[in-house]
Design brief:
Among the domains are: 34 residues, no CATH class; 52 residues; 51 residues, no CATH class. 75% of the residues lie in helices and 0% in strands. The protein is built from nine helices and no strands. Helix 2 runs antiparallel to helix 3 and helix 8 packs antiparallel against helix 9. The N and C termini lie far apart (132 Å).
Length: 199
């Protein structure tokens, strides 16, 4: 049996021309369906597809999607009655709370009036205690600054000026740099300076 090579070559050449003109024409390529993130659009699209080719799976998906996007509304009569009941309860609770607050306020006011004398005495005593503390502090400061005249005469002029004026941090730091025992100063002089700064 003879095979006609010429016919075979013609067919092969035809295929080659087709492939060379469009190499992807041989492939079966379906265009992908456009996808969307919008659930409303998806639902409409599914309904269109269901109208063209109805299938039970698609119907199920449509029902699920509709239930999610458009949930069923309950009877409004029941809701209104529940809301009214809850509003009544809330208003009663608020009224009772307001009454309790008013009673508490009155109690506090009466208690204050009863104990007013006690609190006045308490604050007077506190004031006296604070005053005594300040006075004792002043006395301590005055006694700590008492230096014998003999010692005062021996002090350098910058320390005398520092002791005569109120305590100043800047001058204290300057003098401590000069008279600190670690810097080669005298311990007694440094004690006098520090006692004046921190009595």
């Amino acid at each position: 049996m003879e095979v006609n090579i010429y016919k075979f070559d013609k067919f092969f050449l035809f295929l080659l021309k087709e492939v060379m003109s469009n190499p992807f024409s041989v492939l079966h390529n379906e265009e992908p369906e456009e996808t969307t993130d919008n659930p409303q659009r998806k639902l409409k699209k599914m309904k269109r597809r269901f109208a063209e080719k109805p299938t039970p799976e698609l119907e199920k998906k449509i029902k699920e999607m509709e239930s999610r996007l458009n949930p069923k509304k309950h009877n409004s009569k029941n809701k209104n009655s529940k809301n009214k009941n809850s509003k009544n309860k809330n208003s009663k609770n608020k009224n009772s709370k307001n009454k309790k607050k008013k009673e508490d306020d009155i109690d506090l006011e009466t208690e204050y009036q009863k104990n007013k004398a006690y609190w006045e005495e308490y604050w007077k005593e506190e004031y006296q205690k604070q005053k005594q503390k300040k006075e004792s502090r002043r006395e301590y400061e005055n006694t700590s600054l008492d230096i014998d005249e003999e010692i005062r005469a021996k002090l350098p002029q910058d320390i005398k000026d520092f002791i005569d004026d109120p305590a100043d941090k800047k001058t204290y730091h300057k003098l401590s740099k000069i008279y600190h025992p670690d810097k080669g100063g005298d311990t007694e002089l440094f004690k006098i300076i520090s006692n004046h700064m921190y009595p």
